[in-house]
Amino acid sequence: MMSRSTDLNSPLGRLRIDFCGDGKIRSLTLCAANEPSLSLASGQKETELLLAEQQLVDYFQGRLQTFDLPIDFSDYSPFAVKILQTLQTIPFGTTISYGQLAALSGHAGAARAVGRVVGANRTPLLIPCHRVIGSRGDLVGYSATGGLLTKRWLLRFEEKSLKKGGKGVKC
């Protein structure tokens, strides 16, 4: 299977999903407004792509709180994999500090190293790095397009979705 990329419209703008040849997700990025759009004809879409699209739609409609998609961790260090896998366990609508994430992952005192890993996350949303905040509760850093505005939008979206009983926004 060849690697594939396609775009999906979302309330945040176009999301680009890149798959490895083995069907795992290599990256998920928020496209810049001037970036050309990619799409595959529905007959060309692999099962993995259809599943990813459906889960993203369900997330933005408030019906999905945890993604269950194969992610490519092949070029991350064991430390980074542990941090990113721990980050996947942070519940929808909640936040955690970098120090708390470090401690949860078994690396207490490594908040800065954890911050570097979180900042290099290639699959935001799927690995919800927007849920990591500063030790004083402030929003710090978000490497996806839109930076802190995108992070703030995602946190508010999750909070509102929980309050509304799972009713998200229309894609």
Q: Considering DSSP H and I runs of 4 or more, what fraction of the residues is helical?
A: 25-40%
Please mark out the parts with pLDDT under 50 across 5 or more consecutive residues, or reply none: none
Mean pLDDT: 87
CATH C-level name of the largest domain: Mainly Alpha
Distance between the termini: 29 Å
β-strand number:
5
Question: Would you kindly provide a written description of the structure presented here, covering whatever features stand out?
Answer:
With 171 residues, the chain is an alpha+beta fold. It is 33% helix and 14% strand. It is globular, with a radius of gyration of 16 Å. The two termini are 29 Å apart. A hairpin with a 5-residue loop joins β2 (13-19) and β3 (25-30).
